[in-house]
From TrEMBL:
Domain of life: Bacteria
Protein name from the UniProt record: Rhodanese-like protein
Signal peptide (UniProt feature, chain positions): 1-19
Key words of the record: Signal
Entry-linked Pfam families: Rhodanese (PF00581)
């Protein structure tokens, strides 16, 4: 019985370590990307339409959506357009790594709006598909929504935008996911 409990405890601590290890705060990611010898691929995994309305940081190397908006399919339950996984996500990440002279064991850091719906899942997906050092930006680009007060529901805490890191309402067309160039 002691061995079973010990194995369970070790297993749970390993799971916790993986979750902590996979997440990175925005300031640390920015510092790493700014290094001249950085061996990181920093990927904005949001749909370009979202970036167009929310903002962008030119610190990312490329925009490769993990989930893309399907404007032909509506989800009544959530009241939003359906999101479909980008079927070429892994191939596009590999291509972006190759362009930077990096292998699949390089650190790939993904960032979405909040970190939870696409950031963490995209990093986990990459790890499951041969990218052992995939990570994500905790709280994503916009950060977490306030729970209380007159601005409850607004994303005004943590995340890239709220950490004093560079961002703009303008998109960099050279870094954006574009189907008009294929």
């Amino acid at each position: 019985m002691k061995r079973v409990l010990l194995a369970m405890a070790l297993g749970l601590s390993a799971l916790g370590a993986q979750a902590v290890e996979m997440g990175a705060n925005a300031q640390d990611v920015y510092a790493e990307v700014q290094k001249a010898d950085s061996k990181v691929l920093f990927v904005d995994v949001r749909d370009p339409l979202e970036i167009m309305f929310v903002g962008f940081t030119d610190a990312v190397h490329v925009n490769i959506p993990f989930l893309m908006v399907d404007k032909n399919a509506w989800e009544d339950k959530r009241g939003v357009f359906k999101l479909n996984q980008n079927p070429d996500f892994v191939a596009q990440i590999k291509s972006a790594l190759e362009k930077r002279g990096l292998a699949t064991d390089a650190e790939v850091i993904t960032m979405c709006r909040s970190g939870s719906e696409r950031g963490e899942p995209s990093a986990a997906f990459l790890r499951a598909n041969g990218f052992p050092n995939a990570r994500y930006v905790i709280h994503g680009f916009q950060g977490a929504a306030l729970k209380d007060g007159p601005q409850a529901g607004f994303r005004l805490q943590n995340g890239w935008q709220n950490s004093g890191l560079p961002w703009s309402a303008k998109m960099n067309p050279a870094k954006m996911y574009r189907t008009d160039l294929k």
